[in-house]
Amino acid sequence: MKKTLIALSMAILSQPLFAADLLESWHAAQKYDANFAAARAGLDAGREKAEQGKALLLPQISLSGNANRNTSEYTPENSSSVSSNGNNYGYGLKLTQPIYRAEAFAGADQLKKQTEQAEVIFRVAEQDLILRVAKAYFEVLGSEEKVKQTKAQKEAVAQQLAQAKKSFEVGVSTITDTDEAQARFDAINSAEIAAHNDMAIKRNAYEQLTQLNPGHLKPISNRQQPTPPQPNDMNTWLQRSENGSLVIAGQQLGLDIAGREIDKYRLENSPTLDLTASYGDTWNSAGISKSGGLDRTGSGQIGLQLSIPLYTGGDRSSKLREALAKKEQQRQTVEASRRDTAQFTKQAFLGVSSGAAQIVALQQALKSSESSLASTKLGREVGVRTTIDVLNAEQTYFSTRYDLTVARYTYLYARLQLAATSGELSEKDLNSVNLWLGN
Q1: CA angle 378–406–343, rounded 5-degree value
Q2: Are 256 and 113 in contact (CB under 8 A)?
Q3: What are the φ/ψ torsions at residue 422 (nearest 5 degrees)?
Q4: What is the pLDDT of residues 26-68, one digit of tens each?
Q5: Signal peptide span per the entry (predicted)?
Q6: Where are the alpha helices (DSSP H) in 73-101?
Q7: CB of 32 within 8 A of CB of 210?
Q8: What is the per-residue pLDDT across 204-244, written as a single tens digit (0 to 9) for each?
Q9: Interior/surface letters 147-174, b for 16+ CB within 10 angstroms, e for the rest
Q10: N or C: which end of the chain has fewer CB within 10 A?
Q11: Cα(347)–Cα(269) distance, rounded to whole angstroms?
Q12: Integer angstrom CA distances of residue 15 from 8, 9, 10, 20, 219
């Protein structure tokens, strides 16, 4: 029984650790990332704006109460004074229902638009988190590939260095081959240290974002082949981004909100009409009551209250000028967002388009560099190539392999960026990119 348990434990420990993919990283970041949690809280706060706008047009009810100790002294001419003491209690209930308040109508619409803006801002935060997770994920894989590259180069250069030393010892090569191999070996040592340091930084950034183990991420597989943007027309994507960009939509709502702020101050001097109703009771006791006991007086009223602002000391005029300036500021911000979005769309479109072509070219270049390396090694064995030639061929092969890996990551990230420019980036796009991951 004990042997069985030991064997089972060894089997469990020998299994590969869980490898997270991009979709799982996104789900983890949704729960862990503090910036996204802040965005979610901001959405909850923003949704309350619409409720506050409704409240501007609904009845307002207030309850008041009082309890007083009253003392009075009456002194008639040529007579002695007469004092009276007693307690006074009372309460009042008042209702105010706005009937016409132009400023409140503008304010309610403004608050509703602020809720709409909060929804858009949260969707922007969702897309931003997708891009941040993807960037952190791909940067970890890229740094790991760099470590693999430098390690493989180091092993290859070490073999060439050993062989160059042997050849020099038996007199079949010059000291130049040995010196060149030694210089390459020393340089790759330095590059390996830098690669490990960069990998540690990238892993820490990923872990800080997702709280997942960055040492076991699914790498890029060779099963998928790149495709150009669909549709493969830049003007179509520019139109999509103009109509669907969340950044532009959020800024446009900001412009609408600024416009309603102007309306509020323009309408501030408009008459207001409210329906008012009130009811209250008061009690007087002891010396201040008419009966000498406890007197109760109840009163109620209902009516219309009209108010016409005449002069605010220049406050309304100043705030109106401020609102006009802020609207112009926001209008320019909207225009800047349109231009920036168009530029980002062009960059992302070209990133996908050229990235797909670059991957195909690098795949062929990798095959060619692999064949060239094999031929160069064979040429050295028969004496027509030197160790330097082999080192150069190995450098080309490893660099091409690394460039191909990075090109795949860059291509996939550009696809996500292109979807984001038109406001379409979602979990569906992550699923599509996830198909590229696996052993």
Answers
A1: 140
A2: yes
A3: -100, 10
A4: 999 999 999 999 999 999 999 999 999 999 999 999 999 999 9
A5: 1-19
A6: none
A7: yes
A8: 999 999 999 998 899 988 888 999 999 999 999 999 999 99
A9: bbbbebbbebbeebbebbbebbeeeebe
A10: N
A11: 50
A12: 11, 10, 9, 15, 18
* The length of the chain, given as a count of residues: 439
pLDDT per position as a tens digit, 132-186? 999 999 999 999 999 988 888 787 777 777 777 777 766 656 677 677 777 877 8
Burial level of 403, CB count in 10 A (0-12/13-18/19+)? Answer: middle
Residue 35, token pair as written in the block: 């910036």
Task: Please return the burial class of 332, using the count of CB atoms within 10 Å of its CB with bins 0-12, 13-18 and 19+.
Answer: exposed
Structure tokens at 49: 């704006």
Q: 290: which residues sit within 8 A by CB, 6+ positions away?
A: 284
The whole-angstrom separation of Cα 191 and Cα 83 is 101
Nearest to 57 by CA among 107, 93, 110, 95: 107
Helix (H) or strand (E) holding 246: helix 246-266
Token pair, residue 175, equals 């000291």
